[in-house]
Amino acid sequence: MNSIIENSQVMRAGRAHAVPSSSPATLHLLKPQDRARWDAFVRSCPDATFFHLSGWQPVIEQSFGIKTWFYYVEQDGQIQGVLPLAQIKSRLFGHSLGAMPFCVYGGVAAIGDGARALLDGAADKLARELGVGHLEYRGMERAHPGDASWHTKELYVTFRKEISGDDEENLNAIPRKQRAMVRKGIKLGLRGEVDNHVDRLFTAYSHSVHRLGTPVFPKKYFALLQKEFGDECEVRTIVTDDGRLVGSVLSFYWRDEVVPYYGGGMDLAREVAGNDFMYWNLMQAAAARGCRLFDFGRSKLGTGAYDFKKNWGFTAQHLPYEYKLYGADALPDNNPLNPKYQLFIKMWKKLPIPLANLIGPHIVRNLG
Fold first, then answer.
1. Mean pLDDT calculated for residue range 356-362
2. Which helix (DSSP H) or strand (DSSP E) does residue 84 occupy?
3. Which domain of life is it from (predicted)?
4. d(Cα 18, Cα 25) in Å, to the nearest integer?
5. Residue 13 has pLDDT above 50, yes or no
6. Domains in the chain, ordered, with CATH?
């Protein structure tokens, strides 16, 4: 079987070029009536990801009140490239323009260098008009190698691995110690249930982020993701054999990939290997659905999430996010590992969960 990951790299390396035309390419902002065309292009473009879909615009704007610009380039009535952008403006965390907040991938997705240049130009012009500190693209590869005006830094990695349609083969591919934890959950009778709501997901997720000392997303955000993306957004909840909540994970299905994106576990999860079983149960369901790539998602270097994914036998792949500085004189460092946020994190952990869930959404909207 050819490597899916290698194939995707070949697709990106061998980007198609727009068909020569006598009509000029033109720049536009997405309107509601263009959403179907936009998404059709995204689904066919090798550069594009789930996070380029038009549904992110209403989700981000309605959940957080964040201003967005969804640019596209058109030629001869056909879309040639897209670039979703959002503005984050915060006294505490700075002023920026970039890929959709809370999305791990983003930036220009195009089938020709001309469209790519027009979209880059639009982002540069908007960044200057808004007076932002920096512009950020979030790609799996550098979009501007050799361009000194674009900077990158090593902070995030992603974990992507092929899976097969055979459960036993997938289970045996998990390193022995981690496989033992999965088997523990199986022996204890844990089971996965697909929810058509986000109630149990929010409960498990809010408990997890509270333990980490970070603000929670509003429940409305998860509900909008489920509503907007339909069958491509699944909420899978893990319970014990007597129905107690263990954990829950919201995942995206994209092409032949599954992307577990937001997950969390109750305190009980540690006793019953709940997190290990949850991702195994998702892997089983995704394989049965025809997925052949498991994208374990983004993690920061030096975190527990990073170690957990490595223990599953996944290899870290550096994410060379790109930054172009305008008003700022240094690259952004808005992450929990930054020492200046440690006191805040310690204080947040001491808040009662209901209070943290009330205040958190007002803070997290500024993080991006």
1. 66
2. strand 78-90
3. Bacteria
4. 10
5. no
6. 4-153+321-337 (3.40.630.30), 158-319+357-364 (3.40.630.30)
Percentage of the chain exceeding pLDDT 90: 71
Strand partners, 84: 70
Give the H/E segment covering residue 262.
strand 257-265
Contact criterion met (CB below 8 Å) for 151 and 326: no
Distance of alpha carbon 251 from alpha carbon 226, whole angstroms: 10
Q: Helices in the chain by DSSP H: which ranges?
A: 4-13, 35-44, 56-64, 113-130, 167-172, 176-187, 199-212, 219-229, 268-271, 274-288, 304-310, 342-350, 353-364
* The residue to which tokens 């030629």 are assigned: 75
Over residues 166-225, the pLDDT tens digits come to 999 999 999 999 999 999 999 999 999 999 999 999 999 999 887 777 778 999 999 999
Q: Considering Cα of 29, then 298, then 59, then 288, what sign does the dihedral take?
A: positive
Integer Cα distance of 259 and 236 in angstroms:
12
Look up residue 343 and give its two tokens. 């006191």
Cα-flanking dihedrals φ and ψ of residue 297, to 5°?
90, 180
Measured between alpha carbons, how far is 283 from 94 in angstroms, rounded to an integer? Answer: 38
Main-chain phi, psi angles of 150, to 5 degrees = -110, 130
Strand partners, 134: 96, 325
Q: Which of 315, 314, 311, 316 is nearest to 182 (CA)?
A: 311
Rg (CA), the chain: 21
Tell whether the model's pLDDT for residue 9 goes beyond 70.
Answer: no
Contact 293, 161 (CB under 8 A): yes
Whether the per-residue pLDDT at 7 is higher than 50: the answer is: no
Token representation of residue 189: 């009778």
Bridge partner list, 97? 87, 135
- Cα 59 to Cα 55, 134, 237, 323, 363, distances in angstroms: 6, 23, 22, 24, 17
DSSP β-ladder status, 257-265 and 293-300: parallel
pLDDT in tens, 271-323: 999 999 999 999 999 999 999 999 998 888 878 888 889 889 898 999 999 99
Cα separation, 361 vs 359, in Å, equals 6
Distance CA 357, CA 59 (A): 19
